[in-house]
Amino acid sequence: MKGTNLQGAHLEGVLLLKADLEDAFLMKAHLEGADLRSAHLEGANLQEARLDGASLSSAFFDEGTLLKNTSFGSKPTGFVSLDGLRWGHANLGAVGWSQVEMVGEEQRARQNLQDGKLKERALRLREYEEAVRSTRQLASLLKAQGLHEEATRFA
After folding, report:
1. Per-residue three-class SS string for the chain
2. Average pLDDT for the chain
């Protein structure tokens, strides 16, 4: 799917695990709840794309990945999971971080139930550890790009 034009496409909940989306044109694409784990998004145009509730865990960005006005989630729609995302010098200043209250890992960790049952203590601990790792990584990257106020919220 390298270089594919998917502008405005509705790909909600789609499984794109390890997909090669380098240089793909995903402007205004709806990727809510999509599984993009380990996907290659180097050079992809994600401007104004909706990634609410999507998983970008272990995915790859680079300095050519365009994130202007990309939605990383909200409370009603869910937040994007970022654990292990390789940001590769993507411009994080283009993202509206003020709307992102937390990362998807934290949102998941805060849920008391899984499959209708109360989560076990060990699982909750693992989920919170993932959330801490994701938010620390994000805070560090934001700070490195001079986005100190945004970094402080995630630190």
Report:
1. CCCCECCCCECCCCECCCCECCCCECCCCECCCCECCCCECCCCECCCCECCCCECCCCECCCCCECCCCECEECCCEECECCCCECCCCCHHHCCHHHCCCCHHHHHHHCCEECCEECCHHHHHHHHHHHHHHHHHHHHHHHHCCCHHHHHHHC
2. 95
